[in-house]
Amino acid sequence: MKNNIALEVQNISKKFEFKNKSLKDILLNLFTKKEKSTSNQVVLKNISFSVKKGSAFCITGPNGVGKSTILSIILGIIKADQGTVKTFGKVVAMNELGGGFHPDLTGRDNVFVNGRLMGNRLSNLKTHFDDIIAFSGLNEFIDRPLRTYSNGMIARLAFSIIAFTTADIILIDEVLAVGDEQFRKKCINHFRNFKKNGGTIVMVSHDLGIINNFCDEGIYISSNIVSPKMNTKDLIEKYINKVEYHSGL
Amino acid sequence: MINKDIINYLELLYCLVNKELKIRYNYSFLGYIWALANPIAFAMIYYFAFKIILRIEMENYSLFLLCGLFPWVFFANSINRATISYKADTTLVKRIKIDLSAIPLSTVLQEGIHFCFSLPILVFLVFLLTQNIFFSWLYQIPILCILQLLFLYSFTQILSLSNVFFRDTEYLTGIFVSLSFFLTPIVYPINMVPEKYSIIFDLNPFAMMISNWRSVLLEGNMDIHRLLFFFCITFLFFLISQSLLKRYKFNMSELL
Description:
heterodimer, A: 249 residues, alpha/beta, Rossmann fold, six-stranded mixed beta sheet, globular, B: 256 residues, 79% helix
């Protein structure tokens, strides 16, 4: 039973502190005496969920409630104040496509830099290089500097690197809307295969279409409530209800 | 397992350094000139100011200047650039899980590579102007390079971390580097310093290193005492930097 779990999040809480960061801030506060120099913002409170191996899990809800923070905690960039996160397998994040890309480097060099940052071995990148380029469809552009690429082309290149990164769990933050329809279909297909082979996906999204035809389960988070884990149909219903309630429709 | 981590770390460093060098040199060898331009331009202007206007009495003053300026530029550029390295690369800190210590280290290594590129020119100038070649350079120069790298790694790690938490660090560092230039015997020889101020130079790690570079390049001598002292300071900084890194690495992405 335990073996089916790819990811377990138990009771995590997180608050952010806002501190004065420079002499200027401190001096200004000294004279204005407006408010206390530190204030806290509670972002996450007792959040728990578990994700089954080979499934796609969605976290949805309004902006600014800490959905991306959850992904950062799972990835291990931010530490939760309380609670534990257990991951079984290698985690790769797709929260910012092309992090570490540089406009003056050629596409080829960016593949190696970004691929390495994503946790690939250089030897692995060398063997898959042709496949990455084929997947991205950027064949003749690959030796031009990245600044000559369109946004769509950059996203395609970044996505193709992820596609050939070995991982057990992929974290996705609102980035599936890349490229044209054809490339988007390719991405979705790629993730379906990834799932079929036992890979796990955790995504943050507002895109009901993607949630509907791609995810298996999910939770809804807002500033005051965290829903229990539910299936996609209920999740979308809940989301729509909330939106209607808050916008007074 | 440990071996795998080390290989991963080295590959990461290689990628970061290679990336910056390629950007800086813009895929051409001409960029190499820029590594030399800075110290040589400053050597010329200091020569003009101190030798011609202030009429400092010294033989081969230009060579004396160059032997101090090249290693100083390695110090100064590394410190200034590495201090802002975390702030300049927020995506790497906030979005991607990598070993953070590689970020300032890669900046220091780039500067180290620039310095190593410029060493042959320096050695050639020493030979041209003094007709001396010392075989002891074969071990002395690598020792000095490695010591300087270790020092810069630890020192910039502390500065770049504190710059995340206290944004004034980069401005203070800029002032500190400019002042240190004149408190380090670069444009003047250390024996011109009055006795009562000599304590500043005995405790200044930059002075220890610069005077060693100069005596190695010009006389083939190393001052072991000063180097040992320099190593002790480096080790102290190393311990501080590692404990800071361990303590604060998870707070960084929140603050940037």
